[in-house]
Write a structure and sequence with these properties.
Layout: E1 13-17, H1 20-34, E2 42-46, H2 49-54, H3 58-70, E3 72-75, H4 83-88, H5 98-106, E4 109-114, E5 131-135, E6 145-149, E7 154-160, E8 166-173, E9 179-183, H6 188-205, E10 208-213, H7 221-244, E11 248-252, H8 253-262, E12 267-271, H9 273-287, E13 293-298, E14 304-308, H10 314-321, H11 331-348, H12 351-369, E15 372-373, H13 375-378, E16 387-388, H14 391-405
Parallel strand pairs: 1-2, 1-3, 3-14, 5-12, 10-11, 10-12, 15-16
Antiparallel strand pairs: 4-5, 4-13, 6-9, 7-8, 13-14
Helix pairs in contact: 1-10, 1-14, 3-5, 6-7, 11-12, 12-14
The structure holds NADP nicotinamide-adenine-dinucleotide phosphate and magnesium ion.
Magnesium ion binds at residues 277, 281.
C-alpha cells in the first residue's frame, strides 16, 4: 500500500483540552485516529481544572478569544466545580462553568444533535432522522426576579424611560390570597443573534428550521421573538433558504410539540430558553443515549465550537485510575473533532481535510453497525451479533475500517 502523505492544515484549529475520562479519550482519539493522518495544526488550550485554577481561569477566556480569531474550536468536556471539587482539586476559587464563559464571549447558540446508528432505535418509532435542538441561552426565567407576596399586596411593573417618565402596569392585586410574582426580560439584540445563528446553522446543515413560542397568550413578549425571526428571515435569509431548498416554519409551541412527535425528524427546532432546556432533555433521552449526542456552539458571525453533550464521565475515570478496564463511548467526542475538522476544511477550501472528517464519521458508524461497540450501546442495541469492546479497542476497530477507506 502506498504511504499516504499526511493532510496539511492551513489555519489552526483551537483545541480546548478537558478533564477526567474525556481527557483520556481525547488523547486516544488524537493518537489513534488523527495524528497518523493529519499534520494537526492546533492552538492548544488546556482547560483541565488544574490549569484553569493555576491561570485564574484566564485560559478559558483566552481559548474563547482564540476561537473568535480563528473561527473554529473543538472542546473536551470539563468539570464545572462544586463544593466537592473544591476539596478534590484544592481550588483557589469555585470557577464558573467554562461553557458559560465561552458562550458569553462568543454570544452563541447551542445546537444539540443526536448521532443515529442502526440497532439503537429512538423511543419514538417515526423518528428516522436526527432532530437538532437550538436553545436560546439568554434571559427569560433564567435571569428573573421573583418574590413571595403577602395577601393585600399589589404587584406592578414599573418602567422608567430614559427621560425619567414612568409607566406602570398592574400584575395583580393580591386581595384573595398570598401568592408569588415574577419579572423577566429579554433583549432584541440577543433574540436577533439567536435568530441569525439558527438561520446560518440551517443553511450550513441544509435542514429546515422550526421555531415556536406561545405568542397567542404572550402577545408582546413571545410575539417579539416571532416578529424578530420573521423580519430577519425576510430581509436576510429568504432568498438563500429558497436556493438551498429548505424552509423556515413558525408555529405555536403546542402545535410544534405535536408535530415533532409525529415527524420523521431531519430539522432544527429553535426553542426559547425554557422550552429548549426541557425539550433538549426529552429529545436526547428519546434518541437513546447522551453518549451519542453532539453539541455545537454557533456565534452570529458563524464561529463554531464543537463538543460532546455529555460530561467528563467521572465514574469511568475512577475505574481507569484504579487500573480497571473501561468501556467508555468516545463517539460524541470523536464527532466533535470531525465536526470541527470538516468546518475548518470548508472554511479553508481544504477538501482533503473535509473528506477525511466524513470518512472518519462513516468508519465510526460502520464499526457500530457491524456490532462492535462500547458497553453503554451494547446494553441497548438490538443488533444480533454484538461484540462489547473497551475504550481503546473501540478506537482501534474504527482505525481498521478507516484505513480501508483511505
Ligand atoms: P456525565 O459525565 O455525562 O456522566 C453521567 C453518566 O452517564 C456516566 O456515569 C455514564 O453512566 C453515562 N455516560 C455519559 N457519557 C458517557 C460516555 N461517553 N460513555 C459511556 N457512558 C457515558 O455526567 P456527570 O457524571 O454528572 O458529570 C461529570 C462531570 O462532568 C461534572 O464535573 C460536570 O460538571 C461535568 N459536565 C461537563 C459538561 C461539559 O463540559 N459540557 C457537561 C455535563 C457535565 P454509567 O456510569 O452508568 O456508565
Ligand atoms: Mg435541561
Amino acid at each position: 500500500m502506498a504511504v499516504l502523505e499526511k493532510i496539511q492544515m492551513k489555519t489552526p484549529l483551537v483545541e480546548m483540552d478537558g478533564d477526567e475520562m474525556t481527557r483520556i479519550i481525547w488523547q486516544m482519539i488524537k493518537d489513534i485516529l488523527l495524528t497518523p493522518y493529519i499534520d494537526l495544526n492546533v492552538e492548544y488550550y488546556d482547560l483541565g481544572l488544574e490549569n484553569r485554577d493555576k491561570t485564574g481561569d484566564q485560559v478559558t477566556v483566552d481559548s474563547a478569544l482564540a476561537t473568535k480569531k480563528y473561527g473554529v474550536a473543538v472542546k473536551c468536556a470539563t468539570i464545572t466545580p462544586n463544593a466537592a471539587r473544591m476539596t478534590e482539586y484544592n481550588l483557589h476559587e469555585m470557577w464558573k462553568s467554562p461553557n458559560g464563559t465561552i458562550r458569553a464571549i462568543l454570544d452563541g447558540t447551542v445546537f444539540r444533535a443526536p448521532i443515529m446508528v442502526k440497532g439503537i432505535s429512538p423511543y419514538i418509532p417515526t423518528w428516522k432522522k436526527p432532530i437538532t435542538i437550538a436553545r436560546h441561552a439568554y434571559g427569560d426565567v433564567y435571569r428573573n426576579t421573583e418574590a413571595l407576596v403577602e395577601k393585600g399586596s399589589k404587584a406592578e411593573v414599573v418602567i422608567t424611560r430614559p427621560d425619567g417618565t414612568q409607566e406602570k402596569y398592574q400584575i395583580h392585586d393580591y386581595q384573595e390570597s398570598t401568592g408569588v410574582v415574577q419579572g423577566m426580560h429579554n433583549l432584541d439584540s440577543s433574540i436577533e443573534s439567536f435568530a441569525r445563528a439558527c438561520f446560518n446553522y440551517a443553511l450550513d446543515t441544509k435542514q429546515d428550521l422550526w421555531f415556536a413560542t406561545k405568542d397567542t397568550i404572550s402577545k408582546k413578549y413571545d410575539h417579539r421573538f416571532k416578529d424578530i425571526f420573521q423580519e430577519i428571515y425576510d430581509q436576510e435569509y429568504a432568498r438563500r433558504f429558497a436556493e438551498a431548498g429548505i424552509e423556515y416554519f413558525y408555529t405555536l409551541i403546542d402545535d410544534a410539540v405535536a408535530r415533532v412527535v409525529r415527524s420523521e425528524g431531519g430539522y432544527i427546532w429553535a426553542c426559547k430558553n425554557y422550552d429548549g432546556d426541557v425539550m433538549s432533555d426529552m429529545v436526547a433521552t428519546a434518541f437513546g443515549s447522551l453518549a451519542m449526542m453532539t453539541s455545537v456552539l454557533v456565534a452570529p458571525d458563524g464561529t463554531c465550537e464543537y463538543e460532546a453533550a455529555h460530561g467528563t464521565v467521572q465514574r469511568h475515570y475512577y475505574k481507569h485510575l484504579k487500573g480497571e478496564p473501561t468501556s467508555t463511548n468516545s463517539v460524541a467526542t470523536l464527532f466533535a473533532w470531525t465536526g470541527a475538522l470538516r468546518k475548518r476544511g470548508e472554511l479553508d477550501g481544504n477538501s482533503r481535510l473535509t473528506d477525511f472528517a466524513c470518512k472518519l464519521e462513516k468508519a465510526t458508524i460502520d464499526t457500530i453497525e457491524a456490532g462492535v461497540m462500547t458497553g453503554d450501546l451494547a446494553a441497548m442495541s438490538t443488533l444480533p451479533n454484538i461484540q462489547k469492546v473497551g475504550t481503546e479497542e473501540f478506537l482501534l476497530a474504527i482505525r481498521e475500517r478507516l484505513a480501508q477507506s483511505l
